[in-house]
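Predict both folds.
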Amino acid sequence: MLTGSGEEELDEADSRLQCSSTLVPVTSMSITIHGFDDISGYTVYAISAEVSSLDGWRHHFQSRHRFSDFLQLHKAVSKPLSLPAFPLPKLVIRTKKAKRARMAGLQRYMDTLVISSGQWLIEPVRRFLNAYETRAVTPSKASSVYDIAREIT
């Protein structure tokens, strides 16, 4: 459910999300890191995402990323979302126990990212999740999205 004045939220979204050329308004978003595999000497984390859009559609996405991809995502979103430093060190990890611990840390990071994104799927996260089936709007058109959402809710 959207809260507050649409114009206030739009101003906040515009200022916080300048890293994106498009925004996807969402009613809910969840990202789950559900496993890992070792491929060509690297650990790759399996990610599932579910995004519910204002028009009632529920989208499911699957992606796989190395730890360095998470670092690149953080670099792209940390300033606009006011995130603290990336919470995990870049280390060579070999044991399954250490990889599970890193996976748990990456899940906590993604949970923080979802909360910080508010009601928007911003472009760097959209690319990370391979979420291209969602309907995007430019920040300048986002105010009409809030008007529609107020009518619906």
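Second protein follows, with its predicted structure tokens after the sequence.
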Amino acid sequence: MLDLESSQHRYLLTQEAPDLEPFRAGLVRLDAALAKLPGVTLAQPDLAADLQRLHELVDAKRAEMAGTVTLVDSQGMGAARTSLRNAHGEALMDDIRQVMSRLDGLEGASRSQRQVQRTETIDRKEHLTGLLSAALALLMVAKFKTLLAESIL
């Protein structure tokens, strides 16, 4: 989003078509990133509400940026400046940052939980391996005693 904003601002300053190319390329990358969100939601359903909200905010910010570019093209920088001063785009970015921060926190907690689960799984496997080793040792001792008893008789 920041790259999109930067390239949009560059275009607003220069009003030269080549400066719109990074903006358009950023939109393609944004679409690709947003297309991955449903897969994340399937993997972690507890993130679904925040991811949906993020999608809505990003769509709104994208429309706001594109609208500003359109205003410059159709009505000039004065109209775009008025649009920029209403701070709607800034409020959207603040909301996006807030949701992203919450998602980062949830992801960190989820990562910690997965690490605890892995550690518990490893501990259980090590405990089971120890029990199996002990049982095998007991079986070997019993067999040795049996063989020793047979050879004495």
